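Hey all, quick one. A colleague (J.T.) asked me to put the fe (iii) ion job into the tracker so the inputs and the structure tokens live in one place instead of scattered across chat threads. No bug as far as I know, just bookkeeping. Sequence used:
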Amino acid sequence: MLLARFGRIIAVETRLDSLLTLIAEEVRRILDADRCSVFLIDAYKGELWTKVALGIGEKILRIPLGRGIAGFVAKTGNAINIRDAYRDSRFHQDLDRITGYQTKSVLAVPLKGRDGKVLGVFEVLNKNKGAFNEEDEGFLRILATIAASFIENATLYEELRRSYLETIYRMALVAEFRDQEDTGKHLRRMSRFSGVLASGVGMAYQEAEDIRYAAPLHDIGKVAIPDSILRKPGKLEPAEYEEMKRHTIYGSQMLARAESRLLRLAARIAIAHHENFDGTGYPHRLKGDLIPLEARIVSVADVFDALASERVYKGAWKVSDAKAYILEQAGKLFDPDVCRAFDSRFDELSAVLDEENRRAVPEEGSNLAHHPASPAQGQQPQAGV
Ligand code: C2E
Ligand code: SIN
Ligand code: SIN
Ligand code: FE
Ligand code: FE
């Protein structure tokens, strides 16, 4: 039956963002309406937010609590059913003006959490035949009850996931804190490069995302390297370089046998990100496919960023020189497939570089796992480490 199907479909999705889209689409179909919007309360800002389709993309729109139909429902906890929105004094055309949509009939019910607290508002717009009736309202209330518990779970899950990702990122910051001027920058750049390259070699979205989140830990082992080596302004002596190379082993020891999938991935990256495709790298002189693909990807991202940046021991290269070097090392230091992805996605990589370099004083970590649970004013949730 309809409700069972509804529950089954939305139960699969744990990401709040996709869950909302899924719920809206199902409810729209079930109630034969032209649109369905889910508004959620951002108590901190005293606003309701929703995601709307605009052109090819999506945008987060916000309205003050209390304003408009949705605002009224959120505030009073009462349902509203109106035939002609433009004749109702509670309606504001804020959203219609932005989306170019024309609202006629509106049915809106509150979304209530387990404790009866209003979490948001469910709205269906423009019933395809006639106006919404009492039966529709009863139905929407039931759907709202089912959806609310999933939204509550997804919100909790999202918060957990966000704090987990933030913690990982901050561990990585600790490791790079001593040897770099703008620690956050290198990490964000190489992390995003890694994500771009991973999808460039054909990895699925989730796999590429995992690599993006695990990549910042590649040099975590540097915390065990003394300042006299790590911060040496000039060239390292051979013995110093030997010690420096051990950051790969230290890193993998720190992450070894983790339970978390992301940390195990990070361990594979830490141990192998200085292996070279031709077998001349360290610490194990692995060759070709014996080097995990994630490490072959991060290696290109890391070296590209190291070359393009200033370090205590070297100046920054021109981006075009760094690019030429990467491509020239295909089959030597680097996996030719990854180099091909590097070449074909180069525009995207340099856009990341520009964007990160333009970034003002970074709020460390806050951009890592930016989820729309509380998106920035008028902005799209952005995927950005
Ligand atoms: P890092 O600064 O993050 O550099 C990562 C990798 O980028 C290096 O791995 C190397 O493959 C590449 N790379 C960086 N700068 C250059 C460069 O000027 N020319 C070329 N061809 N490649 C470059 P590598 O060499 O295994 O070094 C690992 C880490 O050891 C470096 O991480 C850095 O922290 C440290 N290190 C390496 N050489 C020196 C040095 O001469 N002085 C100091 N103080 N540290 C060094
Ligand atoms: C809504 O549909 O509730 C928001 C539009 C408005 O009334 O301003
Ligand atoms: C993700 O967390 O997997 C993507 C990041 C985002 O959507 O903000
Ligand atoms: Fe390294
Ligand atoms: Fe690095």
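Adding what we noticed when we looked at it: Residues 218-219, 247, 273-274 surround fe (iii) ion (ligand 4) (CB under 6 Å). Residues 364-385 have pLDDT under 50 and may be disordered.
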